[in-house]
Protein 1
Amino acid sequence: MCCNHAKSDLTLIEDVLKEYADIKGSLITILQKAQSIYGYLPADVLNYISDKTGIPAAKVFTGEA
């Protein structure tokens, strides 16, 4: 059986990204808030965070930025 690959509502994370846009080193906080919003960290949300912050996806997925 195949998993459901529904897209996440990316508008839910917009306020968090705006709040931390100019704060260097805020990736972990953004990830924590995203997990609080979605209940987990969906891949499409992680990729969106990467796109919006300019942090490479590999660093976002590992939380190393």
Note: The helical segments are 14-19, 27-38, 43-53, 57-62.
Protein 2
Amino acid sequence: MLRVGQRLGKYRLKRRLARGGFADVFEAFDTLEHVPVALKVPLAERLDAAQRADFEREIRISARLEHPNILPLKNADYVDGLLAIAYPMGERNLNDRLAYRLSVKNALELAEQMLMALAHAHERRVIHCDVKPENLILFADGTLRLADFGLAKHSARTLQASSSGTVGYVAPEQAMGRPSARSDVFSAGLIVYRMLAGVLPEWPYRWPLEGHARLRRTAPDLVPFLQRALQLDARRRFRNAVQMLSAFRVAKKATLRRLERRRRRS
């Protein structure tokens, strides 16, 4: 078991950020580059061949998805017999930020960055399968980056049935083992709803959802957009994040105009 303060190759482990069923994530210090990194270390004694292949696939996907809003891979190598995957270290994740209220303008900016990242992945036929606030990393300059492609799947032709994901953000069909790009759309819609309404909707997702009154008051132009994104029937949602992003930008523009008119009146 790895311990805080331990050296792993050139990395000195400073604190554990998260623990999953198959990996630890540490804040570590790169003693050669003198920069902090987020270091993901699979728990080797628990990995079978399929799980090891999943981590190696995450590395390959992260290496080829180059976008300002996707967390880039810094390094991946076997160190002292352990696979170590290094990423840039952010300030916090979106879930931490949602512990206190966001302004509408800030929420719209973060939502657009998330959808740009997801659209980039979908254009390359990569489905994330675990879009949630904990996997959206915030940096000091205001940039949001989508992280953790460990559950990502390739195009529908190679997609294997999977019920993986995080309870609370998983689309109904994904929970039944049929994920698609529309499943990512549903998860992203839940995040946008939570940022604007202040609450996370729950099953059975019947409108009006909890927090609907606040959403209507603060961002009414986003209501039709979110109603489509959160359809229980996946066929009635946006087909992917590319289409979702386009619709979001129209709603965002209308919302910002409404906010400006409200500011002038006040």
Note: The chain has a mean pLDDT of 91.
Protein 3
Amino acid sequence: MIFEKIKLLSKSLICLLIINLKILFCKINSKKIIVFCYPNYKLKNISKFYIEDLFNIKKNFKIIYLSTDKNNLNINEIFIYNYLIKYLIKVDLFISNYVCDYFPLTKLKSYIHHDIYDTPLSNLSEEKKLKNRLNKYDHILIPSNNSKTIFEKLKLKKNMEYFEIGYHKLNFLKKKNKKRKTKNYDTIILAPTNFNSFPKLSMYNKIYKIINLLLAKKKYNVVFRPHPSNLNSNIVDRIENKFSKYKNFNIDKSKNYLNTYSNSFLMITDLSGTAYTYSFLTLNPVLFFSISEDVLKKNSYNSLNYFKDRKKIGYIVNHENKLIKLIQKSKFRNSDRLNFIHNNIKKMNINNSKKLFEAYIQKNVLKKDD
């Protein structure tokens, strides 16, 4: 065990040296350096496909991808321990789409937020810690002006700058989805949020009852898609073991949810940010299983657009016995929901995400003086 740790540390130190040599070589050739970091190996694979496409722009910079995942490195990634990142030199932009704790010697640090709505970022007890972590950044790149609300609620430092760049993940998936023609009108997706973040509001409190109820109606196929942070947890393993014997139950642990989302007619979630992504991508409704509206009000979550707009893309249900009736209702076409989705996609600049990001890079990195 100790030998393995020493081996990995040695490998990471060698990688650190290689990266710094690459940076120095690029600087000699007057190229800007952008370092993108995947700080959480559990979440890397659900981001990689659209992040790399986002950076596929006309450029006069060198992009270096860092990964803390020692086991699943892709060909264009370099492994490094988180705490060694601070020894990188002469980086022009350090950027990540999940919050980092270690930063290189850099002029600019940017965080790409990955939620098109003002979905709560963490429970109240963790907000102060999250605020301190986010305050280490200079810029927050938000998918829409709607997303900005949740950061304003945190009351980040006064000189924090926000740049609206659209949501490239949704834009990327929408283009892929247009080529698809199949849809399963019997498939329901269960997509709870990370149960560690909001234990009192998590659908996991009723998950067994909900799954049993849906499976009893054999006309429905149930696809359980756990939050990526919970994939290897005991509770997910127990759910998989308990229900895998049913032919109309599947668990989706794939890197990309496009196939699952596209081949369904409905999502059931609690307060996961994926709710609006799903609805805007598929035009399908969402059932929000609300454990306690009183807890939402107590924490002032009910003032957020995420909760105000739930009925605009679906329905709110607070008891499992009401699910079946609302599922049947959700199959009917709803023109108000479709108009709301289409209007928001236009308003949020979803289709211009790459151009907006390129403009951000051009303004804040490429045109900056050394």
Note: DSSP finds 16 helices and 13 strands in the chain.
